[in-house]
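--- STAGE predict ---
source: upstream dedup step, 1 unique chain passed
mode: sequence only
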Amino acid sequence: MENAVAHPILLSFPESFESERLLIRAPLWGDGAAVNTAVLESLDELRPWMPWARLLPTPEQAEATIRKSRLEFLERKDLRLLLLHKTSGEIVGSSGLHRIDWQTRKFEIGYWVRSSYSRQGYITEAVHAITNYAVQELQANRIEIRCDTRNTPSARVAERSGFTLEGILRNDKCDVDGKLRDTMIFAKVRGVEY
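--- STAGE serialize ---
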């Protein structure tokens, strides 16, 4: 285990798993076009919260981002996960485990949902499955969800998923318009919530 922490690239764990309605998997080369379609459909909802959604992405930019995410997954630097509907195969959204600290086994879950799949429980379902994955496959000791205090839908996902609001960091980050914003930190901790 110590060697794997020193060299996370040595860690082996599944690249995909399922929830009731979703196939949740690491990105693969060629996923860019489908992700780009989902992002384009969802730009109005993503722009207030996601700095990367400020500019209209091209299919080439989306594919380049997917390929970078694939490499980061293999290097164990960032574990982006795509959410695909089991029946249709459509991209429902994207999530993953970010800001990883392998020594303490701390992860942050981020997420966004495609507009046509919003308010249907898909992200809450994904967060439950990703949390279980982090606990069972990655031996997570701490899992966080962070969001802008104004992002009520994101905060509700954290609450419905059983995460505890630990606090609010005031003037913690700049929002997409460059103005200071506050950040809510939700967490689940081994021995307390699981």
